[in-house]
Amino acid sequence: METRTLALEGPLDDVPALCARVSEACRDGPALVVCDVRAVGTAGLGCVEALARMALTARRHGSPLRVTGADGRLRALLGLVGLVELLGEPEEGEPPGGVQEGVEPDDLAV
């Protein structure tokens, strides 16, 4: 899958414009949309809401959205609201993506 990167900066106040950028990135077909948030500054719940709406927009186009460059505060906020998957990390207690649990022939059914 092709990767398309969006560099975000400043406060993420204009959610419709941000979602339009995601739609534009997906116009040629599904792609991994990576949002680099290093230049966003201090992240708050407004930033989390914008990223959540951008992720929904990407999903509507059949594309996953990942966030890179998140500071500790944004990571904590995304985890708090259950959006840690945007960071490409498994939730606590979940196996990493692509890991399959092995089954031995002599295992009893649960």
Topology overview:
Layout (H helix, E strand, L loop, with lengths): L2 E7 L5 H11 L6 E8 L5 H16 L4 E4 L3 H9 L30
Parallel strand pairs: 1-2, 2-3
Describe it:
With about 110 residues, this protein is α/β, with parallel strands linked by helices. Helix content is about 35%, strand content about 15%. Strands 1-2-3 form a three-stranded parallel β-sheet. β1, α1 and β2 form a beta-alpha-beta unit. α1 runs parallel beside α2. The radius of gyration is 16 Å and the shape is globular. The N and C termini lie far apart (about 35 Å). About 20% of the residues are buried. The model has no long low-confidence stretch (mean pLDDT about 85).
Coarse morphology: globular
Distance between the termini: 37 Å
Mean pLDDT: 86
What's the total helix number? 3
Strand arrangement, largest sheet? Answer: 1-2-3
Share of residues in strands: 15-25%
Low-confidence stretches: none
* Largest β sheet strand count, sense and barrel closure: 3 strands, parallel
The whole-angstrom Rg is 16 Å
Q: Count the strands?
A: 3
Judged by helices, strands and strand pairing, the structural class is: alpha/beta
Element-level helix/strand string? EHEHEH
